[in-house]
Amino acid sequence: MKRETLSLNNLPNWMRGRFDDGQRFLVLCICAGVVCGLIGVSFHLAITSVFDGLFGLYQDMGVWAYPTMIFSPAVAGLIVGLMIRYVSPTASGSGIPQTKAAYYQKFGIIKTSEAFWRFIIGTISVGMGNSLGREGPTVHICSAVSSKLGRLFGLGKLRVQAMVPVGMGAGISAAFNAPISAITFVFEELFDNNFSSKALGGILIAVVVAAVVERSLLGEHSALHATRAFFETSWWMLICLALGPTAGVLGHLFTTLLLALRGRFKQWHNFPVWLKPAIGGLSVGLVGITVWQFTGGHNGVFSIGYTDLNEALNGGLAWKVLLLLLVGKFIATAVCYASGASGGIFAPVLFLGSMLGGLFGVAIVNAFNLDPSIAAACALLGTGAFFAAVIRCPLTSVLIIFEMTQNYSLILPLMVGNLLAYMISVKLRHVPIYDALLIQDGISLKKLPAYRGQQDWRNLPISTIMTHDSRTVCGSLNAEQNLERIKADGHPHHGYPIVLSPTEPKLLGVITHHELEEISAANDAQLISEWIEGHPIISIYPDDSIRDVANTLVIKDVLQVPVVSRKDETKLLGIVTLHDIARQQNTIEETMDRD
Question: Using 50, 70 and 90 to split pLDDT, how confident is the model at 554?
Answer without folding.
Answer: confident
